[in-house]
What does this fold into?
Amino acid sequence: MDWSWIPEYSDRLISGFWLTLQLLLMSATMGFMLAIPIGLVQNTGPKWLSMIARGFCTTIRGTPLLIQLWLIYYGVGSLFPDIDGIRESFLWPYLRAAFPYAVTAFTLSVAGYTGEIMRGAFAGVPKGELEAARAMGMSPFKVLVRIWLPRAVQNVFPTLAGEFVLTLKATPLAATITIYELFGRSTEIRQDTFRVYEPLLLVAGIYILMTAVIVVIFRWFENRIPKPSIA
Amino acid sequence: MKSLKTILATAVIAAGLSATAATAEIKLGLDSAPYPPFADVDASGARKGFEIELGNAICKAMNETCVWTPIAWDGIIPALNSKKIDAIFASMSITEKRLKVIDFSNKYYNTPAAMVAPKDMAIDGSPESVKGKIVGVQGSTTHADYAKKHLGGTAAEVKSYQGFDEHNADLAAGRVDAVVGDSLAFQAFLDSDAGSKFEIKGILNDEAVFGKGVGVGLRKGDALKEKFNAAIAKIRDDGTYDAIAKKYFSFDIYGK
It folds into this structure.
């Protein structure tokens, strides 16, 4: 075991760590935002919207994330340059960077998986509670914000925490589209030093620590929300 | 039709026999990603290319049985040192840096590195000409080392890719402004539709980085080195090398 390379590469490892964190937080937040309507319309309709949402979830959950990532980066991304004048537009620096494509791919993936969880979560809230809320004169939107969504999230909170951890561990896939997140940095170190195990062991340790922190944070929130009632 | 059991039994016996035989088969490691015209697979999945034919000819000259074993490029040196493969036969340049961890046979070919960029872009391969540009390379290659050493100071970014095809795809997509790679390996790309808008802008030289050409990578101290050197010399002498090279290249690929 030889760890003498760590000081030389510590800056790069730290920047990789931040990139991993950014990718995780951005895609988990936006993915969850998308998951709420995806889960909701499958309970409320209209039928055609529900069909689209279900189709989306099936497609995302039925295809490997790596393929989605490459389809978006090398596939969709290669169509943009053919649009006239786009290389001169202010959008081009963003369109040619890899990070926005990774965030898009991971967001869609989180939305697909979490959308399915939220569908079940919304369906699991007792009808009586929603009827009671409506009888109190709440508007449909108020029912959603005050009763339906909080109760749904409460029921699936541990599952959402698990989904968050799974997303963290999917982020190394971004290294395949030239994003130097944590794993990408370890690959760089391996290529420079020809040391295989130490860089991998180090980033594996960092992923374990990140997971532990995520678990603790979610547990803290879990303990603060009232236990779900048995319907 | 042979039942699965018979096949398995035969395989087990064969494996047992070859393990006890004086010379076991040599596992030649090659990049699992295609690298035409050196190593590629045809529509039926059979391996083809200059390096494949050359490797087979060298094995024949050594009187050994060789098996091609595809390995992901960035793990190919570790695979050699952990004995997953016995030799790297994958266009690997002989460099000082690599000689610290593995041995090399004598060179079996030597082509210069080149920079490729869009035809209408004012780039000539020099560090000044890539000022503010994004340069793509394949990671773990001498081309990546060259880009880091000579272009890292002026280029906006040096992006490292897992494969040759991928940095070419991003060059075509406009995400990188120029790529550095083997002049010959670029030929197939430049001949394709996607590559028609690009050209070789400059030939890059630095023996400290690119080394003495391409050789067979071997474990340190392995006696196979003498065998490979003898075989390379033999096929150079008896015309086998030239016969194979003529099929692929219009110039002397062996170099000076």
